């Protein structure tokens, strides 16, 4: 992590926040100067620094020694000139009870005030010059950071009145100090005030505040505060940093935000009022003599005006005028003209023009009354203004009169232009200078509309008068402009033209602006992003957008009213006014999903209007106070369910009173995000006063601990229990709890269960028999063996919901080593799915990183089925891959959502229609998921069930988009530019060209001379450089490797050159294997293919299919028919010869199959034979038999391929090239025995009934080397 400060001085660094901040900054590379009173504490601080930290320099310094402050600042300036930030952190807190004045220690009071305020002022005075110099010298500026307190804004802690006052004084001092820096043009000196909440430091311990017991445990953990402070300082704030409750005061419209705006507005009036009685920058009517002192420079700097630039421009104009006058005089002499001082000569006219230019530029110098007698002009200027030649002759009275008239005319024009009554021309000077004050990006400016101070950026917009606007006002102006222009059709996203993969089904193309954001919002809301919204959803959304027009919701059903309430909360539209639409007197239930805008009276109005209320749920119930609970006690409102989230203002007394009065009717109680009022004592009240309680959730609470959890064991009827407590709950307490209530529990949720170990798992196994939901998160004490013992043979029914997030061994030094088997690992996951897989609907094993890939493969093997599983989260599980996610969809027919954040091996999953994968951003793939359709026409022709995998719909028109695209996508990862080279008979080259366009990279394609002109034109149209060399693919490939790529070596050293083999590469095979992954989820449930048919040229498609088949289908692997045309049958020839054979030439019309030698891996697959289980139906009986399977080479004629093309066009309206027609030929062509070639090879000996139930998938590989003219030529040639 790069440090954002180079060197930081931290005052008060020997304890608490100062010490923690020193260690944090040093660990991130910042050089730190730490000061404190005690040397031993400073030495201990250095010893605490982790290894690899930056240097920590320590200085012993007492902040209360005011006389030493200048020497201390001088030492810092001399030894540490690169200091760019100072943190003033020193402070103490004492309690003073002025209710008993005799107990007040005035000496301690004075010490506190001195430490917290006076010492800070002295240090600022001493250190400020160095920081100001740094701010002027460095583009990044400098930071002066004060550790303030929220009590300085709202003195709510009355026990520390002097502390509150000192921090309030410090706040006022900081505000004025910040403005003074701005007034002198030091915007880059950021004066930052930090408002920490109560933090667990020595400030509250018994040494410093003896009357506080356990005060050092009060507030936010120190590490958490330091991390959040560091993160917010990284954003480079300019005014405030708020953490905790104070954030609401600093937010837009908050108390402190309003005070800051008022302060900025008053500055204008105060400065104007002081301008009449104070000299210098505060006085608008500044005389010429005031312009010459340094205060005027500061005034100009505060308005973003450079005095030096003004002086430079003036000198430039004056020198140009003098040069022009000299040139005119010289020209007049050459022409024989007079150069007399009179106004009628050309030279005099030139000098007069120069004089007028100077007068126009510097009216305050040339026109003020002081100029004639009091201001001594420079010699050059005097020569132009007061004389006309080197003789020193003065202007005549007539000339002075004319000059005075010119000045008066200029003065009158300026008066009219500015419409001012004052004749003082210094006002004109100020106006001219102010008009030049154009703030630069990074400087501060007041918004021309709302007056709010904001940071200027290069994109800041100005209003019609030229004043810059803040971001909010700019958006409003944009909306007004948009409304004025009117609707001109939906805006399109950038790049929405014809980018992307192109062709049919391309992945490119944009959409309406914001469409992707809306889609992601729907996904995160749990809605499917696929398909149109229901009419009901559209109506609810329309109603929420126009809720201000609604007077009543009428007789809408309860569930629909609830949906309206949800949508209003999502849009932040739930207010006291819209709430009235949701309140129904006859209803027994109301759920307020966002009560942030409501006050106590609004809740009282709800209770008054709903006398039959039985269920009350309020989220963000900030203003749900004691008055509301007291009203529930006074009225006969017998709540059965009370769910309050964030009701921090409810006191413990009010809770206890309500439980005593109304607890006996409660069946459900949810109390979430209450910091301190739900205590162990209150848990005892729940046990004693709510004996019929069935559902209890206590979440985000700091005050309840093991004692309170122990009280919950007395709730005999408890069925649903959820705990998420800040305090750690010991394992023995949880074991006793399960012994008491485990028998009745249906839901158990223990979040942040860091103390849960194997004894708790054993208690679950022994006492819980009816659990449906189990959540144990962030446990690092349970072992994998403990989970195995829990799930193996557990008498509990299958779970429906399991959440074991974060149950792992957590050691940052050894993240992958887990010798003890801590957490949920592979065996535990297998046991979980074996026990509950039948009924599981939701599984969350996020961050269980010790579950291996083999475990996922075993759980989601082809033979496993989980019919009820709808959601699974496997984020940050390193073993999850693309294939495993595909297997999840195959094994879980009802799976709707898979979450895979942080799974680095999930790079591009083919997601079935209607399903969702939430994952990190992955590169755009140059291929798409193609459909697999049942073909009735081909099924009749073949006599069995035929499915067509339509790879002809790929962006390039063929299956090559998968393998070629996968190889190119993997090769293009990185920052270097990539140039792709490919040799192809056409389809592989087109796939390379299309993929290169998607990946925004150049491509060079070399094709054989036998490639048709039609195909060459398509390649060039796709954006590739095309060359034709060689009679066949082998010759073209040799030319590419030995000549083309060698030629491009020169001048392209920075470019990565990637050779793209058409078929013989593992990445090409892996891309083709995705066809099988898609088939596993696209085929009807229960259908396992008996055969796959594909064309073979070089063998890339065959290798990919065999890889996928072996991985997905295992023992049920289908037979693969590898079909070639005669004259391009290198695979069949190799199988017949028992070795790889190279054909002498390609004589088939299927040029896309024109590899004279098949890939070695493709030949190897034909030699590999394995046993498979075949399910036959004989006489109505299903029988399993073992047969030997293999790749079966099949050779058809060109005539058979052409006939298949024509019949497919008639049957399915699809036009493919001869290479694809070869794969279709076995379905149409007949064998000598009268049966189809397909049945001859895989159905020989089967009865008609057994053959009719066979399932065959044909990979319609497509191909772009075909059109109607070529088809007619083929038909004429082969007589078909």
Task: Detail the topology: elements first, then pairings.
Layout: E1 7-11, H1 16-27, E2 31-36, H2 39-48, E3 56-60, H3 69-79, E4 85-88, H4 106-137, E5 142-147, H5 161-183, E6 189-195, H6 222-234, E7 240-242, H7 246-250, H8 255-274, H9 288-291, H10 294-302, H11 307-334, H12 346-361, H13 363-366, H14 379-386, H15 397-418, H16 425-435, E8 444-446, E9 453-455, H17 471-485, H18 515-524, H19 535-545, H20 558-570, H21 576-582, E10 589-592, H22 600-609, E11 615-618, H23 626-634, E12 641-645, H24 652-662, E13 668-672, H25 680-689, E14 695-701, H26 706-711, E15 720-725, H27 731-741, E16 747-750, H28 758-767, E17 773-776, H29 784-791, E18 801-803, H30 826-836, E19 842-844, H31 853-859, E20 871-873, H32 882-891, E21 897-899, E22 916-918, E23 932-934, H33 936-942, E24 945-950, H34 960-971, E25 978-983, H35 987-998, E26 1003-1007, H36 1013-1021, E27 1025-1028, H37 1033-1047, E28 1056-1060, H38 1066-1082, E29 1091-1095, H39 1100-1112, E30 1119-1125, H40 1130-1137, H41 1160-1167, E31 1170-1178, E32 1181-1189, E33 1191-1196, H42 1198-1212, H43 1218-1228, H44 1237-1242, H45 1248-1252, E34 1255-1260, H46 1268-1278
Helix pairs in contact: 1-6, 3-4, 4-5, 11-12, 19-20, 22-23, 23-24, 24-25, 27-28, 28-29, 29-30, 30-31, 32-38, 34-35, 34-38, 38-39, 42-43, 42-46
Mean pLDDT: 80
Oligomer: single chain
CATH topology of the domain at 7-251: Rossmann fold
Q: Please, what is the CATH homologous superfamily of the domain at 7-251?
A: NAD(P)-binding Rossmann-like Domain
Domain DNA repair protein rhp7 treble clef: 441-478
Protein name: L-serine ammonia-lyase
GO molecular function, one term: pyridoxal phosphate binding
Subcellular location: Cytoplasm
């Amino acid at each position: 992590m790069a440090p954002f400060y180079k060197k930081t001085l931290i005052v008060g660094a020997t304890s608490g926040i100062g010490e923690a901040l020193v260690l944090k900054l040093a660990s991130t590379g910042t050089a730190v100067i730490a000061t404190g009173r005690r040397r031993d504490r400073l030495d201990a601080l250095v010893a605490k620094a982790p290894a690899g930290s930056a240097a920590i320099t320590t200085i012993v310094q007492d902040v209360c020694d005011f006389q030493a402050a200048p020497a201390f600042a001088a030492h810092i300036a001399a030894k540490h000139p690169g200091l760019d930030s100072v943190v003033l952190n020193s402070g103490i807190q004492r309690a003073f009870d002025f209710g008993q004045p005799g107990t007040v220690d005035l000496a301690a009071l004075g010490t506190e005030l001195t430490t917290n305020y006076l010492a800070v002022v002295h240090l600022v005075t001493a250190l400020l010059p160095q920081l100001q110099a740094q701010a002027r010298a460095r583009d990044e500026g400098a930071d002066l950071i004060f550790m303030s307190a929220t009590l300085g804004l709202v003195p709510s802690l009355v026990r520390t009145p002097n502390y509150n006052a000192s921090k309030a004084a410090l706040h006022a001092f900081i505000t004025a100090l910040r403005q003074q820096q701005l007034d002198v043009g030091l915007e880059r000196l950021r004066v930052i005030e930090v408002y920490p909440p109560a933090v667990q430091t020595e400030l509250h311990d018994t040494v410093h505040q003896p009357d506080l017991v356990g005060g050092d445990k009060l507030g936010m953990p120190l590490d958490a505060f330091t991390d959040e402070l560091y993160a917010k300082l990284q954003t480079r704030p300019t005014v405030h940093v708020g953490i905790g409750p104070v954030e609401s005061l600093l937010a837009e419209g908050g108390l402190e935000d309003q005070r800051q705006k008022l302060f900025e507005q008053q500055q204008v009036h105060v400065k104007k009022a002081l301008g009449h009685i104070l000299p210098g920058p505060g006085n608008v009517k500044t005389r010429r003599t005031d312009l010459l002192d340094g205060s005027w420079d500061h005034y100009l700097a505060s308005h973003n005006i450079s005095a030096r630039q003004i002086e430079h421009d003036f000198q430039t104009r004056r020198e140009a005028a003098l040069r022009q006058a000299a040139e005119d005089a010289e020209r007049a002499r050459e022409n024989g003209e007079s150069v007399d001082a009179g106004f009628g000569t050309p030279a005099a006219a030139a000098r007069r023009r120069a004089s007028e230019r100077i007068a126009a530029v510097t009216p305050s110098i040339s026109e003020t009354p002081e100029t004639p007698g009091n201001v001594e002009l420079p010699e050059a200027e005097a020569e132009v203004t007061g004389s006309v030649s080197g003789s020193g002759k003065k202007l005549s009275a007539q000339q002075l009169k004319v000059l005075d008239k010119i000045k008066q005319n200029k003065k009158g024009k300026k008066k009219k232009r500015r419409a001012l009554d004052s004749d003082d021309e210094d006002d004109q000077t100020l106006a001219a200078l102010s008009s030049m004050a154009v703030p630069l990006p990074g400087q501060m400016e007041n918004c021309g509309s709302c007056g709010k101070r904001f940071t200027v950026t290069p994109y800041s917009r100005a209003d019609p008068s030229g004043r810059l606007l803040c971001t909010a006002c700019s958006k409003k102006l944009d909306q007004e402009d948009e409304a004025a222009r009117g609707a001109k059709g939906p805006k399109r996203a950038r790049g929405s033209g014809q980018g992307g993969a192109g062709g049919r089904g391309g992945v490119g193309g944009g959409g309406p602006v914001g469409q992707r954001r809306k889609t992601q919002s729907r996904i995160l809301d749990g809605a499917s992003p696929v398909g149109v919204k229901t009419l009901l959803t559209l109506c609810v959304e329309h109603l929420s957008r126009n809720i201000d027009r609604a007077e009543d919701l009428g007789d809408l059903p309860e569930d629909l009213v609830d949906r309206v309430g949800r949508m209003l909360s999502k849009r932040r539209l739930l207010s006291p006014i819209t709430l009235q639409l949701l309140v129904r007197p006859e209803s027994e239930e109301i759920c307020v999903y966002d009560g942030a805008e409501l006050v106590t009276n609004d809740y009282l109005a709800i209770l008054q209007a709903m006398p039959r209320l039985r269920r009350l749920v309020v989220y963000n119930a900030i203003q749900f106070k004691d008055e509301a609970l007291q009203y529930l006690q006074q009225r006969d409102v017998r709540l059965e369910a009370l769910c309050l989230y964030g009701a921090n203002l409810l006191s413990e007394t009010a809770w206890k009173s309500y439980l005593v009065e109304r607890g006996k009717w409660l069946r459900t109680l949810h109390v979430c995000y209450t910091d301190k009022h739900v205590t162990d004592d209150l848990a005892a009240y729940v046990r004693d006063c709510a004996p019929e309680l069935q559902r209890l959730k206590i979440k985000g609470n700091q005050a309840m601990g093991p004692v309170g959890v122990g009280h919950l064991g007395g709730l005999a009827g408890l069925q649903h229990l959820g705990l998420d407590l800040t305090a750690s709950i010991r394992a023995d307490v949880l074991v006793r709890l399960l012994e008491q209530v485990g028998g009745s529990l249906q839901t158990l949720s223990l979040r942040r269960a860091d103390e849960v170990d194997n004894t708790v798992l054993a208690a679950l196994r022994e006492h819980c028999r009816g659990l449906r939901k189990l959540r144990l998160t962030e446990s690092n004490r349970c072992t994998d063996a403990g989970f195995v013992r829990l799930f193996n043979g557990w008498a509990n029914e299958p779970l429906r919901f399991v959440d074991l997030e974060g149950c792992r061994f957590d050691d940052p030094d050894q993240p992958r080593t887990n010798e003890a088997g801590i957490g949920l690992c592979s065996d535990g996951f297998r046991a979980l799915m074996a026990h509950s897989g039948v009924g599981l609907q939701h599984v969350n094993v996020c961050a269980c990183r010790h579950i291996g890939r083999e475990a996922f493969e075993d759980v989601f093997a082809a033979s496993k089925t989980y019919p009820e599983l709808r959601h699974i989260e496997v984020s940050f599980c390193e073993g999850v891959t693309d294939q495993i996610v595909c297997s999840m969809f195959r094994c879980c027919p009802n799976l709707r959502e898979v979450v895979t954040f942080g799974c680095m091996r999930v790079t591009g999953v083919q997601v079935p229609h209607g399903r969702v994968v939430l994952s990190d951003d992955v590169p755009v793939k140059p291929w798409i998921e193609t459909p697999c359709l049942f073909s009735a026409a081909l099924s009749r022709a073949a006599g069995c069930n035929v499915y067509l995998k339509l790879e002809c719909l790929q962006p390039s028109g063929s299956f090559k988009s998968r393998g070629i695209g996968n190889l190119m996508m993997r090769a293009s990862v990185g920052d270097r530019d990539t140039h792709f080279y490919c040799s192809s008979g056409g389809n592989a080259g087109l796939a390379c060209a299309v993929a290169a366009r998607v990946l925004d990279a150049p491509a060079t394609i070399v094709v054989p001379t036998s490639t048709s002109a039609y195909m060459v034109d398509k390649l060039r149209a796709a954006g590739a450089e095309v060359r034709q060399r060689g009679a066949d693919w082998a010759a073209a490939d040799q030319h590419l490797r030995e000549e083309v790529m060698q030629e491009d070596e020169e001048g392209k050293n920075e470019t990565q050159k990637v050779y793209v083999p058409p078929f013989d590469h593992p990445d090409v095979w892996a891309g083709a294997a995705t066809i099988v992954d898609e088939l596993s989820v696209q085929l009807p449930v229960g259908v396992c293919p008996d055969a796959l048919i594909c064309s073979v040229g070089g063998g890339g498609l065959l290798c990919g299919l065999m890889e996928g088949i072996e991985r997905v289908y295992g023992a049920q692997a289908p037979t693969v028919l590898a079909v070639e045309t005669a004259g391009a049958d290198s695979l069949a020839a190799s199988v017949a010869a028992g070795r790889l054979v190279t054909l002498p030439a390609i004589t088939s019309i299927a040029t896309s199959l024109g590899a004279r030698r098949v890939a070695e891996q493709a030949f190897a697959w034909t030699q590999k034979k394995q046993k498979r289980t075949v399910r036959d139906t004989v006489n109505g009986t299903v029988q399993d038999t073992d047969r030997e399977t293999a790749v079966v080479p099949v050779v058809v004629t060109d005539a058979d391929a052409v006939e298949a093309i024509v019949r497919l066009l008639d049957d399915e309206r699809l036009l493919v090239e001869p290479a694809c027609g070869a794969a279709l030929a076995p379905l149409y062509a007949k064998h000598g025995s009268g049966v189809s070639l397909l049945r001859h090879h895989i159905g020989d000996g089967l009865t008609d009934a057994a053959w009719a139930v066979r399932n065959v998938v044909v990979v319609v590989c497509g191909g772009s080397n075909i059109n109607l003219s070529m088809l007619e030529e083929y038909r004429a040639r082969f007589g078909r």
